[in-house]
Write a structure and sequence with these properties.
Distance between the termini: 28 Å
CATH superfamily: Electron Transport, Fmn-binding Protein, Chain A
Number of helices: 4
Radius of gyration: 16 Å
CATH class: Mainly Beta
Structural class: alpha+beta
Shape: globular
Order of helices and strands: HEEEEEEHHHE
Length: about 170
């Protein structure tokens, strides 16, 4: 995987507010996603369990997903994606079950645009978390898409493996 891109010193106020809001909301969401049975929330959210690449700390992060055949697609705009490594399985809690999944970080702008089209068709709410506007032709604004990719936006394609004991 590529290195983490340089971050600006100060995020815009709206992003800081959004980050705090999500941190608070994620507490009960994590609890619901840990339940040993599917819930309405688990139809669109899964719980990632991973280890911080620098800290070694264990994390659990709720992320949205869309199923495409035997893979899952997740918008990777958050910092959690930098802890993923191609070929290293990650435990995910998917619809009440623990499953190992291999992450593949997609960084090609054309493939990202194609996958985002698939994702927003299945779950229109995805576009709210992606933040790349559409142009007058209905396609994603190419300049904004390429800028987002330069600054680290990815789609994570999860290749599902075997179910594991909790």
């Amino acid at each position: 995987m590529s290195e983490h891109p340089k971050r600006e010193r100060q995020r815009p106020l709206i992003r800081r507010i959004q980050a705090r809001f999500m941190a608070v909301i994620n507490i009960p969401v994590r609890m619901l996603l840990r339940l040993p049975f599917p819930t309405p929330l688990s139809r669109r959210l899964m719980l990632l369990s991973y280890t911080g690449r620098k800290s070694g700390k264990a994390y659990q992060t709720p992320v949205s997903y869309v199923q495409q055949g035997d893979t899952l697609l997740t918008p990777g705009g958050g910092n959690w994606k930098w802890n993923l490594r191609d070929g290293r399985p990650v435990r995910i809690r998917l619809r009440g079950r623990d499953v190992l999944a291999q992450p593949e970080l997609v960084k090609d702008p054309d493939e990202i645009e194609r996958l985002l089209t698939v994702m927003t068709a299945a779950n229109p709410g995805v576009s709210a978390f992606v933040g790349i506007p559409k142009g007058p032709d209905g396609r994603l604004d190419r300049d904004r898409l390429e800028a987002a990719v330069r600054y680290g936006f990815r789609i994570v394609r999860w290749h599902l493996g075997e179910e594991v004991a909790p």
